[in-house]
Amino acid sequence: MKFIVIIPTYNEAENLPHLVSALFLIPLEIKILVIDDNSPDGTGDIADKLVSINPGKLQVIHRPAKSGLRSAYLQGFNQAFLERADAIVQMDADLSHDPACLIDMAKSLTTCQVVFGSRYAKGGRVDVNWSIWRKALSAWGNFYSRTLLGLPIQDVTTGYRMWRADALMGMPLARVRSNGYVFLVEMAYLAHRLHYKFGEIPIYFADRRFGRSKMSFRIQLEAALRIWQLPWIYRDLSAR
């Protein structure tokens, strides 16, 4: 199978070279697609240098400004469709997602439309150095989303996902409007409405090594409100 790994970046200059090196050690046919939002720390320039080192295995899309997770991934999905990928991977650039998990995710994808790298499935964990408050907030946000939407997965908010390309192509992606991390929740809910089969692989979610988190109060507020809207927005899919 041909795997395209989509990595949105904004100020990930220190992390990206480590992630790219680790991905190319995985025994899968992988091509990396970096989508950089004009990072002021030079992430885009570093990505271009990595292209010269890995010709044909890495591509960079440079965008003029920070435009959000939704538009980055939708642009990446469309590019992956054009390149006839068999499977499409979403993952963060901050080294929180272990590339080695892709092997088990790929195995699980043979019987599912989408596989989640799960912090909350049996065997999954979050960073041991997280504070009790941060662990509680993460667990609560996931429980809140999963319960309100009736999703049959343990980790609704994970950003580590592997999709069958034909499954993604079968989704009405133009209807997805969430911009922050609730984009991930909306995608999971849409797949559920389409009766896609989910897989979950336990992961250890490590905290970022370098740089700063992109999470803000505005993003969290958008998520809390948007989740209540999703059942109404996709009510026409419930009979499928």
How do the strands and helices of this protein lay out in sequence?
Elements: E1 2-9, H1 16-23, E2 29-36, H2 43-53, E3 58-62, H3 69-82, E4 87-90, H4 102-108, E5 114-118, E6 125-126, H5 132-149, E7 161-164, H6 165-169, H7 182-193, E8 198-202, E9 204-205, H8 217-233
Parallel strand pairs: 1-2, 1-4, 2-3, 5-8, 6-9
Antiparallel strand pairs: 4-7, 5-7
Q: How would you describe what is shown here?
A:
With 240 residues, the chain is α/β, with parallel strands linked by helices. The protein has eight helices and nine strands. Helix 1 links the parallel strand 1 (2-9) and strand 2. Helix 5 packs parallel to helix 8 and helix 7 runs parallel beside helix 8. The longest helix has 18 residues, at 132-149. The protein starts with a strand and ends in a 7-residue tail after the last helix.
Record keyword descriptors for this entry.
two-stranded parallel ribbon; alpha/beta; 9 strands; 38% helix; 240 residues; globular; Spore Coat Polysaccharide Biosynthesis Protein SpsA, Chain A
